[in-house]
Structure formats: structure tokens, C-alpha cells
Amino acid sequence: MSHSSLLIVLLGPTGSGKTALSLALAEHFGGEIVNCDSVAIYRDFDIGTAKPTMAERGRVPHHLFDSVGPTAYVTAGEYSRQARKVLEEIKTRGSLPIVVGGTGLYLQALLEGLFAGPERSEELRDRLRRRAKNKSYLHRLLYRLDPVAAAKIHSHDTPKLIRAIEVCLASRKEMSEMWKEGRDPLQGFHILRLGLNPERVALYQRINQRAQQMFDSGLVEETGSMLEKYGDAARPLSSLGYKQAVQLFRGEVDRDTAIQAAQQAHRNYAKRQMTWFRREHPAKSR
Known about the structure:
Elements: E1 5-11, H1 18-29, E2 31-35, H2 54-57, E3 62-63, H3 76-92, E4 96-100, H4 104-112, H5 122-131, H6 137-145, H7 147-152, H8 158-171, H9 175-178, E5 189-195, H10 200-216, H11 219-230, H12 242-249, H13 255-280
Parallel strand pairs: 1-4, 1-5, 2-3, 2-4
Helix pairs in contact: 3-4, 5-8, 6-8, 10-13, 11-12, 12-13
């Protein structure tokens, strides 16, 4: 019987201090940091992703940062395959792997595995994207097909809503039931979850300051450069902060409005993260 190695999973909402804590843990215990943020995996996008700086990355080994090009589409399953390979390599070196990030679906795929869902149907997805102009349509449709899945997916998370509806229609099963089938959980590691749950007022203040600092540090200029180089095909441009910077770059909003919208979007995201982590990944040792 093989010995299970320790794996630390550092959970917490955006702006909660995960980077600083992960660096302290890695330096003290001889660890290597593995990214679990779906935007930080992209090259060329730095200011709006709040990635560790190059100086911070020089202190301990970091993995799966800047690992794909800006136009690549990385599914949760593909992330899981890459991350599991990295974890095994870290274990072979005798180091402590520390998974850090706030993308819940990526983390779920890594730790619990994903069900074997049906193949993507671009025809169906195109139809659903057109209907998504009605903001509540997709969520109401999913609620009729699978109330349990609808309760776990935010009404504005169009990609996840489309995938859930696609699964329900193609498989003729509820996606929430398929979640329970055919999982391939991570093996060979004893998982210690460490959750950061800062006081909400202080967290929101920090989020507001960080969003302001991103704009002050050249977020709009970085966004303009990426638009000129990749156009709308660059996937991070639809993420928090970059979306508002695109609007400012194109003259659709003024600077103050863009900053306030970015701050609000990050606060809303942090709230959803805290709810998701409490429900899906209670901080404990397994």
C-alpha cells in the first residue's frame, strides 16, 4: 500500500491573502505552489490577475502560471490532468505541494474528479447563447431540467448554465445525478484544506483598494495592448477587471465608473466564492 503524501489546499475568496500565506507556508515547509485560478493560467495578462510577482515566484517554485496562450480554452478536466501531473512530480521530489486559487470548478475537478458527460454540441450552444440575451432565461430553463444544479450555478454564469443544460438534454439525465457517477477522485494524497474567511467589511475594503491599484498600475494600457494583439479572442478580457477596462478603453464608460464597476464585480465574486467554498469544500483535514 503506497504512502499518502500531504497536500495543502489553500482556499479563500479573492483578496483574502492567499498568495502571502502560500509563500510563507512554502518557504517554511519546503513547498511548491500550484495555481488553481482559471485566469492566472494565461500568459501576458498580469495586472488584472493579481498573479504573484516575478520576485515572489523566485522565492519558491510555482506551477501552472502563464501556462497557456491568451486564446486557449482550458476546461476543468484539462486543468485537472495538468495539475495532477504536477502534483505527482512535486511528490517525487519530496516537496510539499500547495494548491492555491479561487476557481471552484477547477478545484473540484482536481480533488474529486469530473463525471463523464456528453460531448459538446456547438449547434445547441449557439442557440443557447442567443437566448442568453434574456438574462434569466437560461437559469429558468435549467431549473426546470435540474433544480439541484440550478441552485448551485449563479444565474449570470452563462458558460456553466449552458454546459449544464447541454448535459441534461443530451444525456436525458439530471446533471446533479451525473455528478455522483463516475468520479475519479485524486489518489495518493492526504488533503489538508486551509480556509481563509476574513471579516467581510475588511475584505471588501481590501478588494476596493486592489481594484483601484490595478487601474493605477496600467490595467487599461495592458488591456489595450491585448486587444490590439489578440482582439476579442483573448479569453481573459471577459474576466473581472478586464471587462471593465475594455469598456473604458473603448470609451463606453468613464474611469470612475469603470473602477466602481470592477470593485463591485470583485466584491460580488468574493461573496459567491465564500458561499461555494463553505458548501463544497469545508476547511478540514481529509
